[in-house]
Write a structure and sequence with these properties.
The complex is a heterodimer.
Chain A (H helix, E strand, L loop, with lengths): L2 H10 L5 H4 L16 H7 L2 H26 L2 E2 L7 E2 L3 H8 L1 H32 L5 H9 L6 H11 L5 H6 L16 H26 L3 H10 L3 H29 L3 H5 L16 H10 L7 H27 L6
Antiparallel strand pairs in A: 1-2
Helix pairs in contact in A: 5-15, 6-10, 6-12, 6-14, 7-10, 10-12, 12-15, 14-15
Chain B lengths: L2 H5 L14 H4 L4 H27 L4 H6 L11 H8 L3 H32 L3 H12 L5 H14 L6 H26 L3 H8 L4 H12 L1 H17 L2 H6 L8 H15 L3 H33 L3
Chain lengths: 332, 301
Protein backbone atom coordinates (compact mmCIF):
# COMPACT_ATOMS: atom_id res chain seq x y z
CA UNK A 1 0.00 0.00 0.00
CA UNK A 2 2.71 2.41 0.81
CA UNK A 3 4.48 1.27 -2.28
CA UNK A 4 2.64 3.72 -4.48
CA UNK A 5 3.70 6.50 -2.24
CA UNK A 6 7.28 5.77 -1.62
CA UNK A 7 8.14 4.66 -5.09
CA UNK A 8 7.52 7.92 -6.97
CA UNK A 9 8.85 9.92 -4.06
CA UNK A 10 12.24 8.40 -4.05
CA UNK A 11 12.81 9.28 -7.64
CA UNK A 12 11.68 12.85 -7.09
CA UNK A 13 13.58 13.39 -3.89
CA UNK A 14 16.87 11.61 -4.03
CA UNK A 15 17.77 12.81 -0.55
CA UNK A 16 15.57 10.15 0.91
CA UNK A 17 16.64 7.29 -1.26
CA UNK A 18 18.08 4.38 0.67
CA UNK A 19 21.55 4.82 -0.85
CA UNK A 20 22.04 8.19 0.74
CA UNK A 21 21.42 6.68 4.10
CA UNK A 22 23.98 3.96 3.71
CA UNK A 23 26.80 5.89 5.36
CA UNK A 24 24.93 5.81 8.66
CA UNK A 25 23.99 2.17 8.83
CA UNK A 26 23.51 2.10 12.58
CA UNK A 27 20.55 4.37 12.44
CA UNK A 28 18.88 3.29 9.30
CA UNK A 29 15.12 3.66 9.19
CA UNK A 30 14.70 0.04 10.10
CA UNK A 31 16.17 0.98 13.41
CA UNK A 32 14.54 -1.76 15.38
CA UNK A 33 17.41 -4.22 15.39
CA UNK A 34 18.30 -5.55 18.82
CA UNK A 35 20.58 -3.25 20.70
CA UNK A 36 19.59 -0.27 18.58
CA UNK A 37 20.89 3.12 19.57
CA UNK A 38 19.57 4.86 22.62
CA UNK A 39 17.38 7.16 20.59
CA UNK A 40 15.58 4.14 19.17
CA UNK A 41 15.08 2.69 22.61
CA UNK A 42 13.86 6.02 23.86
CA UNK A 43 11.60 6.44 20.91
CA UNK A 44 9.91 3.14 21.51
CA UNK A 45 8.86 4.31 24.94
CA UNK A 46 6.73 6.95 23.24
CA UNK A 47 4.28 4.33 22.01
CA UNK A 48 1.55 5.08 24.53
CA UNK A 49 1.70 8.90 24.52
CA UNK A 50 2.16 9.15 20.75
CA UNK A 51 -0.04 6.41 19.33
CA UNK A 52 -2.43 6.07 22.26
CA UNK A 53 -4.79 9.03 21.69
CA UNK A 54 -5.16 8.37 17.97
CA UNK A 55 -5.66 4.68 18.58
CA UNK A 56 -8.31 5.17 21.26
CA UNK A 57 -10.30 7.80 19.34
CA UNK A 58 -10.17 5.81 16.13
CA UNK A 59 -11.11 2.56 17.83
CA UNK A 60 -13.96 3.97 19.89
CA UNK A 61 -15.45 6.21 17.21
CA UNK A 62 -14.82 4.17 14.10
CA UNK A 63 -13.94 0.52 14.61
CA UNK A 64 -16.31 -0.16 17.50
CA UNK A 65 -19.28 1.35 15.61
CA UNK A 66 -18.31 -0.65 12.52
CA UNK A 67 -18.34 -3.86 14.53
CA UNK A 68 -21.49 -2.65 16.26
CA UNK A 69 -23.12 -2.36 12.84
CA UNK A 70 -22.51 -6.04 12.17
CA UNK A 71 -23.94 -6.84 15.61
CA UNK A 72 -27.05 -4.68 15.13
CA UNK A 73 -27.64 -6.13 11.67
CA UNK A 74 -28.24 -9.50 13.33
CA UNK A 75 -31.06 -8.12 15.46
CA UNK A 76 -34.55 -6.82 15.08
CA UNK A 77 -34.46 -3.46 16.78
CA UNK A 78 -36.40 -0.22 16.57
CA UNK A 79 -33.72 1.83 18.27
CA UNK A 80 -35.28 1.67 21.68
CA UNK A 81 -36.71 -1.20 23.64
CA UNK A 82 -35.43 -4.75 23.52
CA UNK A 83 -33.18 -6.10 20.78
CA UNK A 84 -34.30 -9.42 19.42
CA UNK A 85 -31.68 -11.70 17.94
CA UNK A 86 -32.81 -12.89 14.53
CA UNK A 87 -29.57 -14.12 12.99
CA UNK A 88 -29.32 -13.46 9.28
CA UNK A 89 -33.04 -12.76 8.96
CA UNK A 90 -32.49 -9.08 8.21
CA UNK A 91 -30.35 -9.93 5.23
CA UNK A 92 -33.01 -12.29 3.91
CA UNK A 93 -35.60 -9.62 4.50
CA UNK A 94 -33.85 -6.83 2.64
CA UNK A 95 -33.19 -9.16 -0.27
CA UNK A 96 -36.93 -9.67 -0.56
CA UNK A 97 -37.48 -5.93 -0.25
CA UNK A 98 -38.00 -4.45 -3.69
CA UNK A 99 -36.95 -1.06 -2.40
CA UNK A 100 -33.60 -2.31 -1.18
CA UNK A 101 -32.92 -4.16 -4.41
CA UNK A 102 -33.55 -1.06 -6.49
CA UNK A 103 -31.47 1.09 -4.11
CA UNK A 104 -28.59 -1.35 -4.19
CA UNK A 105 -28.99 -1.61 -7.96
CA UNK A 106 -28.63 2.16 -8.17
CA UNK A 107 -25.45 2.01 -6.12
CA UNK A 108 -24.10 -0.61 -8.52
CA UNK A 109 -25.07 1.61 -11.46
CA UNK A 110 -23.13 4.49 -9.91
CA UNK A 111 -20.19 2.25 -9.21
CA UNK A 112 -19.91 0.63 -12.63
CA UNK A 113 -21.67 2.78 -15.23
CA UNK A 114 -20.71 6.18 -13.83
CA UNK A 115 -17.31 4.77 -12.93
CA UNK A 116 -16.66 3.57 -16.47
CA UNK A 117 -17.78 6.88 -17.94
CA UNK A 118 -15.56 8.81 -15.55
CA UNK A 119 -12.55 6.66 -16.33
CA UNK A 120 -12.92 6.84 -20.08
CA UNK A 121 -13.43 10.60 -19.96
CA UNK A 122 -10.68 11.20 -17.43
CA UNK A 123 -8.22 9.18 -19.45
CA UNK A 124 -9.19 10.96 -22.66
CA UNK A 125 -8.80 14.30 -20.89
CA UNK A 126 -5.42 13.23 -19.56
CA UNK A 127 -4.21 12.44 -23.06
CA UNK A 128 -5.48 15.77 -24.34
CA UNK A 129 -4.05 17.69 -21.41
CA UNK A 130 -0.69 15.96 -21.45
CA UNK A 131 1.08 18.38 -23.73
CA UNK A 132 -1.47 21.10 -24.14
CA UNK A 133 -0.66 24.75 -23.73
CA UNK A 134 -2.16 26.11 -20.52
CA UNK A 135 -2.68 22.70 -19.04
CA UNK A 136 -2.14 23.97 -15.53
CA UNK A 137 -5.04 26.38 -15.72
CA UNK A 138 -7.33 23.81 -17.30
CA UNK A 139 -6.39 21.21 -14.74
CA UNK A 140 -6.89 23.55 -11.81
CA UNK A 141 -10.34 24.53 -13.03
CA UNK A 142 -11.65 21.04 -13.65
CA UNK A 143 -10.36 19.92 -10.26
CA UNK A 144 -12.32 22.48 -8.27
CA UNK A 145 -15.74 20.74 -8.24
CA UNK A 146 -14.18 18.07 -6.07
CA UNK A 147 -13.99 20.60 -3.23
CA UNK A 148 -17.64 21.57 -3.42
CA UNK A 149 -20.28 19.84 -1.37
CA UNK A 150 -22.37 17.65 -3.70
CA UNK A 151 -25.46 19.27 -2.18
CA UNK A 152 -24.71 22.36 -4.20
CA UNK A 153 -24.92 20.47 -7.48
CA UNK A 154 -28.16 18.83 -6.42
CA UNK A 155 -29.78 22.16 -5.60
CA UNK A 156 -28.50 23.83 -8.77
CA UNK A 157 -29.82 20.97 -10.88
CA UNK A 158 -33.26 21.64 -9.46
CA UNK A 159 -33.04 25.20 -10.71
CA UNK A 160 -31.56 24.43 -14.10
CA UNK A 161 -33.92 21.59 -15.00
CA UNK A 162 -37.09 23.22 -13.66
CA UNK A 163 -39.98 23.11 -16.15
CA UNK A 164 -39.51 26.86 -16.66
CA UNK A 165 -35.80 26.63 -16.02
CA UNK A 166 -32.68 27.31 -17.99
CA UNK A 167 -32.40 24.09 -19.97
CA UNK A 168 -35.88 24.42 -21.35
CA UNK A 169 -35.38 28.08 -22.16
CA UNK A 170 -32.28 27.05 -24.12
CA UNK A 171 -34.15 24.30 -25.92
CA UNK A 172 -37.14 26.45 -26.86
CA UNK A 173 -35.39 28.39 -29.67
CA UNK A 174 -34.20 25.05 -31.08
CA UNK A 175 -37.81 24.09 -31.69
CA UNK A 176 -38.24 21.81 -28.70
CA UNK A 177 -41.71 22.80 -27.58
CA UNK A 178 -42.36 19.73 -25.51
CA UNK A 179 -39.19 19.10 -23.53
CA UNK A 180 -38.94 15.99 -21.40
CA UNK A 181 -39.96 16.29 -17.78
CA UNK A 182 -36.42 16.37 -16.45
CA UNK A 183 -37.32 16.13 -12.83
CA UNK A 184 -39.97 13.42 -13.13
CA UNK A 185 -39.36 10.69 -10.58
CA UNK A 186 -38.05 8.27 -13.18
CA UNK A 187 -35.68 10.75 -14.76
CA UNK A 188 -33.97 11.97 -11.62
CA UNK A 189 -31.54 9.11 -11.23
CA UNK A 190 -30.13 9.26 -14.78
CA UNK A 191 -29.71 13.00 -14.27
CA UNK A 192 -27.85 12.34 -11.03
CA UNK A 193 -25.57 9.97 -12.90
CA UNK A 194 -24.80 12.57 -15.55
CA UNK A 195 -24.19 15.23 -12.90
CA UNK A 196 -21.80 12.95 -11.06
CA UNK A 197 -19.83 12.23 -14.21
CA UNK A 198 -19.50 15.95 -14.84
CA UNK A 199 -18.41 16.84 -11.33
CA UNK A 200 -16.10 13.91 -10.58
CA UNK A 201 -14.16 13.49 -13.81
CA UNK A 202 -11.88 16.43 -13.07
CA UNK A 203 -10.64 14.94 -9.81
CA UNK A 204 -9.66 11.65 -11.42
CA UNK A 205 -8.11 13.47 -14.34
CA UNK A 206 -5.84 15.26 -11.88
CA UNK A 207 -4.78 11.97 -10.33
CA UNK A 208 -4.22 10.24 -13.66
CA UNK A 209 -2.21 13.20 -14.86
CA UNK A 210 0.05 12.93 -11.86
CA UNK A 211 0.72 9.39 -13.06
CA UNK A 212 1.23 10.29 -16.70
CA UNK A 213 3.54 13.16 -15.78
CA UNK A 214 5.80 10.67 -14.09
CA UNK A 215 6.59 8.93 -17.38
CA UNK A 216 10.03 10.12 -18.47
CA UNK A 217 9.87 11.95 -21.79
CA UNK A 218 12.54 9.79 -23.42
CA UNK A 219 9.99 7.01 -23.68
CA UNK A 220 7.96 9.21 -26.00
CA UNK A 221 11.04 10.12 -27.97
CA UNK A 222 11.84 6.45 -28.29
CA UNK A 223 8.37 5.88 -29.63
CA UNK A 224 8.76 8.63 -32.17
CA UNK A 225 12.11 7.24 -33.31
CA UNK A 226 10.69 3.75 -33.61
CA UNK A 227 7.84 5.14 -35.62
CA UNK A 228 5.12 4.08 -33.23
CA UNK A 229 1.64 5.34 -33.97
CA UNK A 230 -0.29 7.31 -31.36
CA UNK A 231 -2.30 4.24 -30.55
CA UNK A 232 0.76 2.05 -30.13
CA UNK A 233 2.29 4.61 -27.85
CA UNK A 234 -0.84 4.55 -25.76
CA UNK A 235 -1.01 0.78 -25.71
CA UNK A 236 2.65 0.01 -25.01
CA UNK A 237 3.90 2.99 -23.04
CA UNK A 238 1.25 5.11 -21.38
CA UNK A 239 -1.15 2.39 -20.28
CA UNK A 240 1.36 -0.02 -18.77
CA UNK A 241 3.20 2.76 -16.96
CA UNK A 242 0.07 4.30 -15.44
CA UNK A 243 -1.57 1.00 -14.65
CA UNK A 244 -0.99 1.28 -10.91
CA UNK A 245 -2.49 4.76 -10.84
CA UNK A 246 -5.54 3.36 -12.59
CA UNK A 247 -5.78 0.74 -9.89
CA UNK A 248 -5.58 3.42 -7.22
CA UNK A 249 -8.30 5.45 -8.90
CA UNK A 250 -10.53 2.41 -9.20
CA UNK A 251 -10.18 1.71 -5.48
CA UNK A 252 -10.88 5.35 -4.67
CA UNK A 253 -13.98 5.44 -6.82
CA UNK A 254 -15.26 2.16 -5.39
CA UNK A 255 -15.03 3.53 -1.88
CA UNK A 256 -16.45 6.96 -2.62
CA UNK A 257 -19.27 5.86 -4.93
CA UNK A 258 -20.80 3.58 -2.32
CA UNK A 259 -21.07 6.54 0.09
CA UNK A 260 -22.97 8.79 -2.30
CA UNK A 261 -25.81 10.35 -0.37
CA UNK A 262 -26.03 14.15 -0.34
CA UNK A 263 -26.62 14.71 -4.00
CA UNK A 264 -29.46 12.18 -4.08
CA UNK A 265 -30.95 13.64 -0.94
CA UNK A 266 -31.58 17.12 -2.36
CA UNK A 267 -31.45 16.53 -6.10
CA UNK A 268 -33.97 18.68 -7.91
CA UNK A 269 -35.08 20.40 -4.74
CA UNK A 270 -37.39 18.86 -2.25
CA UNK A 271 -40.11 16.47 -3.26
CA UNK A 272 -42.24 17.66 -0.38
CA UNK A 273 -41.94 14.80 2.05
CA UNK A 274 -38.28 15.53 2.68
CA UNK A 275 -37.34 12.15 1.27
CA UNK A 276 -36.29 11.76 -2.36
CA UNK A 277 -38.41 9.60 -4.67
CA UNK A 278 -37.64 5.91 -4.16
CA UNK A 279 -36.52 5.48 -7.77
CA UNK A 280 -33.39 7.49 -7.08
CA UNK A 281 -32.42 5.93 -3.74
CA UNK A 282 -28.96 4.53 -3.24
CA UNK A 283 -27.96 2.02 -0.58
CA UNK A 284 -26.79 4.88 1.65
CA UNK A 285 -30.15 6.63 1.32
CA UNK A 286 -31.92 3.36 2.09
CA UNK A 287 -29.92 3.03 5.30
CA UNK A 288 -30.59 6.58 6.38
CA UNK A 289 -34.31 6.57 5.62
CA UNK A 290 -34.91 3.24 7.33
CA UNK A 291 -33.27 4.45 10.50
CA UNK A 292 -33.86 8.18 10.80
CA UNK A 293 -36.53 9.49 8.47
CA UNK A 294 -39.22 9.29 11.13
CA UNK A 295 -41.71 8.14 8.53
CA UNK A 296 -42.15 4.65 9.91
CA UNK A 297 -40.84 2.65 12.83
CA UNK A 298 -37.08 2.73 12.56
CA UNK A 299 -35.75 -0.61 11.38
CA UNK A 300 -32.18 -0.45 12.64
CA UNK A 301 -31.56 -4.09 11.80
CA UNK A 302 -32.47 -3.84 8.13
CA UNK A 303 -30.78 -0.44 7.81
CA UNK A 304 -27.45 -1.67 9.15
CA UNK A 305 -27.75 -4.88 7.14
CA UNK A 306 -27.88 -2.72 4.02
CA UNK A 307 -24.84 -0.76 5.17
CA UNK A 308 -22.90 -3.92 6.01
CA UNK A 309 -23.65 -5.26 2.54
CA UNK A 310 -22.22 -2.04 1.07
CA UNK A 311 -19.10 -2.60 3.11
CA UNK A 312 -18.92 -6.19 1.87
CA UNK A 313 -19.25 -4.94 -1.70
CA UNK A 314 -16.35 -2.54 -1.18
CA UNK A 315 -14.17 -5.20 0.44
CA UNK A 316 -14.73 -7.73 -2.32
CA UNK A 317 -14.11 -5.21 -5.08
CA UNK A 318 -11.01 -3.76 -3.45
CA UNK A 319 -9.52 -7.22 -2.99
CA UNK A 320 -10.33 -8.13 -6.60
CA UNK A 321 -8.93 -4.85 -7.88
CA UNK A 322 -5.72 -5.22 -5.96
CA UNK A 323 -5.31 -8.73 -7.27
CA UNK A 324 -6.05 -7.75 -10.85
CA UNK A 325 -3.76 -4.73 -10.74
CA UNK A 326 -0.84 -6.30 -8.94
CA UNK A 327 0.70 -8.31 -11.73
CA UNK A 328 1.22 -5.40 -14.07
CA UNK A 329 3.04 -2.96 -11.86
CA UNK A 330 5.98 -1.79 -13.95
CA UNK A 331 8.95 -0.24 -12.25
CA UNK A 332 10.57 2.63 -14.03
CA UNK B 1 13.41 24.18 3.30
CA UNK B 2 12.99 21.49 0.73
CA UNK B 3 9.81 19.96 2.04
CA UNK B 4 7.78 21.51 -0.74
CA UNK B 5 9.82 19.57 -3.19
CA UNK B 6 9.48 16.45 -1.15
CA UNK B 7 5.76 16.76 -1.14
CA UNK B 8 5.55 17.45 -4.80
CA UNK B 9 7.38 14.75 -6.69
CA UNK B 10 4.23 13.18 -8.09
CA UNK B 11 3.49 16.23 -10.13
CA UNK B 12 6.99 17.46 -10.63
CA UNK B 13 7.56 17.97 -14.29
CA UNK B 14 10.86 17.51 -15.90
CA UNK B 15 11.20 20.89 -17.44
CA UNK B 16 13.68 20.16 -20.15
CA UNK B 17 11.93 18.39 -22.91
CA UNK B 18 8.61 17.69 -21.24
CA UNK B 19 5.77 16.81 -23.59
CA UNK B 20 6.87 19.26 -26.25
CA UNK B 21 9.99 17.51 -27.44
CA UNK B 22 10.46 17.97 -31.19
CA UNK B 23 9.54 14.35 -31.74
CA UNK B 24 6.07 15.06 -30.50
CA UNK B 25 5.40 18.46 -31.94
CA UNK B 26 4.35 17.16 -35.29
CA UNK B 27 1.23 15.37 -34.21
CA UNK B 28 -1.90 17.40 -34.70
CA UNK B 29 -4.79 15.19 -35.44
CA UNK B 30 -8.35 16.33 -35.85
CA UNK B 31 -9.43 14.21 -32.91
CA UNK B 32 -6.98 16.01 -30.70
CA UNK B 33 -8.14 19.38 -31.93
CA UNK B 34 -11.69 18.46 -31.02
CA UNK B 35 -10.54 17.26 -27.63
CA UNK B 36 -8.70 20.48 -26.88
CA UNK B 37 -11.66 22.58 -27.98
CA UNK B 38 -14.07 20.56 -25.87
CA UNK B 39 -11.78 20.79 -22.89
CA UNK B 40 -11.55 24.56 -23.07
CA UNK B 41 -15.33 24.70 -23.43
CA UNK B 42 -15.69 22.67 -20.25
CA UNK B 43 -13.26 24.99 -18.50
CA UNK B 44 -15.13 28.07 -19.70
CA UNK B 45 -18.51 26.64 -18.68
CA UNK B 46 -17.21 25.71 -15.23
CA UNK B 47 -15.94 29.21 -14.58
CA UNK B 48 -19.09 30.75 -16.02
CA UNK B 49 -21.26 28.54 -13.82
CA UNK B 50 -19.42 29.64 -10.72
CA UNK B 51 -19.63 33.32 -11.65
CA UNK B 52 -23.29 32.88 -12.56
CA UNK B 53 -24.08 31.30 -9.20
CA UNK B 54 -22.44 34.13 -7.30
CA UNK B 55 -24.19 36.71 -9.50
CA UNK B 56 -27.63 35.19 -8.89
CA UNK B 57 -27.10 35.46 -5.17
CA UNK B 58 -27.33 39.24 -5.56
CA UNK B 59 -30.67 39.23 -7.39
CA UNK B 60 -34.13 38.79 -5.95
CA UNK B 61 -36.11 35.65 -6.59
CA UNK B 62 -38.49 37.15 -9.10
CA UNK B 63 -35.71 38.58 -11.22
CA UNK B 64 -33.91 35.23 -11.15
CA UNK B 65 -36.98 33.34 -12.28
CA UNK B 66 -37.90 35.90 -14.95
CA UNK B 67 -34.48 35.87 -16.51
CA UNK B 68 -32.05 33.29 -15.16
CA UNK B 69 -29.38 34.55 -17.54
CA UNK B 70 -29.46 38.09 -16.20
CA UNK B 71 -26.82 39.91 -14.24
CA UNK B 72 -27.42 41.76 -11.00
CA UNK B 73 -28.25 45.42 -11.50
CA UNK B 74 -26.98 46.45 -8.11
CA UNK B 75 -25.08 44.98 -5.22
CA UNK B 76 -28.07 43.81 -3.22
CA UNK B 77 -27.15 41.91 -0.10
CA UNK B 78 -30.80 41.28 0.74
CA UNK B 79 -30.53 37.58 -0.05
CA UNK B 80 -27.60 37.17 2.25
CA UNK B 81 -29.33 39.10 5.00
CA UNK B 82 -32.44 36.94 4.64
CA UNK B 83 -30.47 33.69 4.49
CA UNK B 84 -28.46 34.92 7.45
CA UNK B 85 -31.49 35.74 9.59
CA UNK B 86 -34.46 33.69 8.37
CA UNK B 87 -32.54 30.68 7.15
CA UNK B 88 -30.48 30.39 10.32
CA UNK B 89 -27.33 30.51 8.25
CA UNK B 90 -25.65 32.79 10.75
CA UNK B 91 -25.68 30.18 13.49
CA UNK B 92 -24.95 27.42 11.00
CA UNK B 93 -21.95 29.25 9.58
CA UNK B 94 -20.60 29.81 13.06
CA UNK B 95 -21.16 26.13 13.96
CA UNK B 96 -19.53 24.96 10.74
CA UNK B 97 -16.57 27.25 11.24
CA UNK B 98 -16.11 26.17 14.84
CA UNK B 99 -16.49 22.48 14.08
CA UNK B 100 -14.24 22.60 11.06
CA UNK B 101 -11.40 24.47 12.73
CA UNK B 102 -11.50 22.67 16.07
CA UNK B 103 -11.83 19.17 14.65
CA UNK B 104 -9.20 19.73 11.97
CA UNK B 105 -6.67 21.16 14.41
CA UNK B 106 -7.24 18.33 16.86
CA UNK B 107 -7.18 15.69 14.13
CA UNK B 108 -3.78 16.80 12.95
CA UNK B 109 -2.48 17.32 16.48
CA UNK B 110 -3.46 13.79 17.44
CA UNK B 111 -2.51 12.10 14.19
CA UNK B 112 0.92 13.70 13.83
CA UNK B 113 2.65 12.05 16.81
CA UNK B 114 1.03 8.75 15.94
CA UNK B 115 2.22 8.97 12.35
CA UNK B 116 5.67 9.97 13.51
CA UNK B 117 5.90 6.88 15.69
CA UNK B 118 4.61 4.61 12.95
CA UNK B 119 7.10 6.03 10.47
CA UNK B 120 10.15 5.86 12.71
CA UNK B 121 9.71 2.61 14.60
CA UNK B 122 9.53 -0.43 12.40
CA UNK B 123 8.40 -3.67 13.97
CA UNK B 124 5.53 -6.12 13.88
CA UNK B 125 3.44 -3.93 16.14
CA UNK B 126 3.72 -0.75 14.07
CA UNK B 127 3.16 -2.66 10.84
CA UNK B 128 -0.01 -4.10 12.34
CA UNK B 129 -1.08 -0.69 13.62
CA UNK B 130 -0.52 0.92 10.22
CA UNK B 131 -2.69 -1.70 8.62
CA UNK B 132 -5.29 -1.22 11.33
CA UNK B 133 -5.48 2.50 10.60
CA UNK B 134 -5.65 1.98 6.84
CA UNK B 135 -8.61 -0.36 7.31
CA UNK B 136 -10.78 2.65 8.11
CA UNK B 137 -10.23 4.15 4.67
CA UNK B 138 -12.53 1.52 3.20
CA UNK B 139 -15.42 1.82 5.63
CA UNK B 140 -18.21 4.05 4.31
CA UNK B 141 -19.90 6.43 6.72
CA UNK B 142 -23.31 4.79 6.50
CA UNK B 143 -21.93 1.69 8.21
CA UNK B 144 -21.03 3.48 11.42
CA UNK B 145 -24.00 5.87 11.28
CA UNK B 146 -26.50 3.93 13.38
CA UNK B 147 -24.17 2.43 16.02
CA UNK B 148 -22.53 5.84 16.42
CA UNK B 149 -25.90 7.47 16.95
CA UNK B 150 -26.87 4.85 19.53
CA UNK B 151 -23.53 5.12 21.35
CA UNK B 152 -23.46 8.91 21.45
CA UNK B 153 -27.08 9.01 22.50
CA UNK B 154 -26.21 6.98 25.59
CA UNK B 155 -23.64 9.55 26.69
CA UNK B 156 -25.76 12.57 25.68
CA UNK B 157 -23.45 13.60 22.86
CA UNK B 158 -25.98 13.59 20.05
CA UNK B 159 -27.23 16.98 19.02
CA UNK B 160 -24.01 18.41 20.35
CA UNK B 161 -21.19 20.20 18.62
CA UNK B 162 -18.72 18.49 20.94
CA UNK B 163 -20.03 15.08 19.90
CA UNK B 164 -19.80 15.99 16.24
CA UNK B 165 -16.23 17.19 16.70
CA UNK B 166 -15.27 13.93 18.39
CA UNK B 167 -16.82 11.94 15.56
CA UNK B 168 -15.01 13.97 12.92
CA UNK B 169 -11.70 13.45 14.69
CA UNK B 170 -12.30 9.71 14.93
CA UNK B 171 -13.32 9.19 11.33
CA UNK B 172 -10.49 11.39 10.01
CA UNK B 173 -7.79 9.34 11.67
CA UNK B 174 -7.24 6.80 8.88
CA UNK B 175 -6.60 9.30 6.08
CA UNK B 176 -4.58 11.70 8.23
CA UNK B 177 -2.40 9.01 9.78
CA UNK B 178 -1.87 7.43 6.39
CA UNK B 179 -0.93 10.71 4.76
CA UNK B 180 1.36 11.91 7.52
CA UNK B 181 3.09 8.55 7.95
CA UNK B 182 4.01 8.63 4.28
CA UNK B 183 5.13 12.21 4.67
CA UNK B 184 7.32 11.63 7.72
CA UNK B 185 8.92 8.68 5.93
CA UNK B 186 9.95 10.98 3.12
CA UNK B 187 11.79 13.38 5.45
CA UNK B 188 15.56 13.05 5.70
CA UNK B 189 16.74 11.45 8.93
CA UNK B 190 20.11 13.19 9.15
CA UNK B 191 18.96 16.12 11.21
CA UNK B 192 17.16 13.94 13.70
CA UNK B 193 20.28 11.83 14.02
CA UNK B 194 22.44 14.87 14.55
CA UNK B 195 20.08 16.13 17.21
CA UNK B 196 20.06 12.73 18.89
CA UNK B 197 23.88 12.69 18.93
CA UNK B 198 23.77 16.08 20.60
CA UNK B 199 21.73 14.53 23.34
CA UNK B 200 18.24 15.63 22.44
CA UNK B 201 15.54 13.31 23.77
CA UNK B 202 13.31 11.32 21.46
CA UNK B 203 10.45 13.67 22.16
CA UNK B 204 12.73 16.63 21.67
CA UNK B 205 13.78 15.49 18.21
CA UNK B 206 10.14 15.10 17.24
CA UNK B 207 9.08 18.44 18.66
CA UNK B 208 12.06 20.60 17.73
CA UNK B 209 13.40 18.95 14.58
CA UNK B 210 10.83 16.87 12.75
CA UNK B 211 7.73 18.99 13.32
CA UNK B 212 9.27 22.19 11.94
CA UNK B 213 10.59 20.20 8.98
CA UNK B 214 7.17 18.71 8.39
CA UNK B 215 5.27 22.00 8.38
CA UNK B 216 4.34 21.63 4.72
CA UNK B 217 2.92 18.16 5.01
CA UNK B 218 1.07 18.99 8.19
CA UNK B 219 -0.49 22.07 6.62
CA UNK B 220 -1.62 19.96 3.66
CA UNK B 221 -3.18 17.37 5.95
CA UNK B 222 -4.87 20.17 7.89
CA UNK B 223 -6.34 21.78 4.77
CA UNK B 224 -7.63 18.43 3.53
CA UNK B 225 -9.41 17.96 6.85
CA UNK B 226 -10.82 21.48 6.71
CA UNK B 227 -12.33 20.74 3.33
CA UNK B 228 -13.80 17.39 4.25
CA UNK B 229 -15.20 18.62 7.59
CA UNK B 230 -16.66 21.77 6.06
CA UNK B 231 -18.53 19.68 3.50
CA UNK B 232 -19.43 16.67 5.63
CA UNK B 233 -23.18 16.11 5.48
CA UNK B 234 -24.41 12.63 6.35
CA UNK B 235 -23.01 12.40 9.89
CA UNK B 236 -24.02 15.96 10.74
CA UNK B 237 -27.53 15.37 9.40
CA UNK B 238 -27.87 12.29 11.58
CA UNK B 239 -26.30 13.54 14.78
CA UNK B 240 -27.70 17.08 14.95
CA UNK B 241 -31.39 17.69 15.54
CA UNK B 242 -31.96 21.20 16.80
CA UNK B 243 -31.71 24.21 14.52
CA UNK B 244 -29.22 26.05 16.70
CA UNK B 245 -26.77 23.16 16.37
CA UNK B 246 -26.98 22.79 12.57
CA UNK B 247 -23.86 23.03 10.47
CA UNK B 248 -24.07 24.66 7.04
CA UNK B 249 -24.88 21.59 4.92
CA UNK B 250 -27.66 20.59 7.31
CA UNK B 251 -29.01 24.14 7.38
CA UNK B 252 -28.97 24.16 3.60
CA UNK B 253 -30.96 20.93 3.44
CA UNK B 254 -33.51 22.25 5.91
CA UNK B 255 -33.72 25.51 3.93
CA UNK B 256 -34.45 23.53 0.74
CA UNK B 257 -37.11 21.53 2.52
CA UNK B 258 -38.79 24.59 4.02
CA UNK B 259 -39.32 25.93 0.54
CA UNK B 260 -41.80 23.21 -0.20
CA UNK B 261 -44.12 24.97 2.21
CA UNK B 262 -43.12 28.59 1.98
CA UNK B 263 -42.55 28.88 -1.77
CA UNK B 264 -39.24 28.87 -3.53
CA UNK B 265 -36.82 31.52 -2.32
CA UNK B 266 -34.14 31.07 -4.94
CA UNK B 267 -32.40 34.30 -4.03
CA UNK B 268 -31.90 33.12 -0.47
CA UNK B 269 -30.93 29.66 -1.67
CA UNK B 270 -28.26 31.01 -4.00
CA UNK B 271 -26.91 33.09 -1.14
CA UNK B 272 -26.74 29.90 0.93
CA UNK B 273 -24.90 28.06 -1.83
CA UNK B 274 -22.41 30.88 -2.11
CA UNK B 275 -21.78 30.77 1.65
CA UNK B 276 -21.02 27.04 1.31
CA UNK B 277 -18.82 27.30 -1.78
CA UNK B 278 -16.91 30.54 -1.29
CA UNK B 279 -14.63 29.47 1.58
CA UNK B 280 -13.58 26.46 -0.49
CA UNK B 281 -12.81 28.73 -3.43
CA UNK B 282 -10.73 31.02 -1.24
CA UNK B 283 -8.76 28.09 0.17
CA UNK B 284 -8.28 26.69 -3.30
CA UNK B 285 -7.01 29.92 -4.79
CA UNK B 286 -4.78 30.48 -1.80
CA UNK B 287 -3.36 27.00 -1.32
CA UNK B 288 -4.40 25.25 -4.49
CA UNK B 289 -1.10 23.75 -5.49
CA UNK B 290 -0.46 22.25 -2.10
CA UNK B 291 -3.95 20.85 -2.17
CA UNK B 292 -3.91 19.03 -5.47
CA UNK B 293 -0.56 17.62 -4.55
CA UNK B 294 -1.82 16.50 -1.18
CA UNK B 295 -4.86 14.88 -2.69
CA UNK B 296 -3.04 13.08 -5.44
CA UNK B 297 -0.57 11.96 -2.80
CA UNK B 298 -3.28 11.00 -0.38
CA UNK B 299 -4.70 8.72 -3.00
CA UNK B 300 -1.61 6.58 -2.81
CA UNK B 301 -3.67 3.70 -1.56
Amino acid sequence: MTLHLTEPRTDGAPVTSPESRKPVPRKSRRGSRPGGSSIDVQRKKLLIPFVGPAFVLYTVLFIVPALGAVWISLHKWAGSGPMKFVGLDNYGRIFRDQLFLSSFGNTLLLLFVVGTAIFVLAFALTLVLRDMAGKKIARNVIFFPHLINALVFGVLAGFIFNPGGMVNSLLAPLGVTDPPKWLAQDNIFPLIMVTLVCTTTGYFTTILMAGVDRIPPYYYEDCALAGASAFQRLRYVILPLTWDVFGTCAVLWTISSVKIFEIVWVFGGSSGAGVPPTQSWTAAVYTYVNAFSGQSTPAYGAATASAVLSLALISVLVVLLRRAMRRDAVEF
Amino acid sequence: MSQDKLLAPLTTRRRPGRGVSPALRGERSILRGIGVTLLWMVVAISIAALVWMVAQAFRDTRAILDDPWGVPTSMDFGNFVRAWTVGDFAVATWNSLLTTVVSSVLTVAIAAPCSYYLSRVDNKLTQGLSLYFILGLGIPAQVILIPLFVMLNRVYLTDSIIGLNLVYIGVSMPLTVFLLTAFFRSLPLEMEEAAALDGTTAFGTFWRITLPLAKGGILTAFILQVISHWNETLLALTLLQSTEKYTLPVALISFVQQQTYSGADWGGLFAGLVIVVLPMLIIYVWLGRRLTEGLTLGMGK
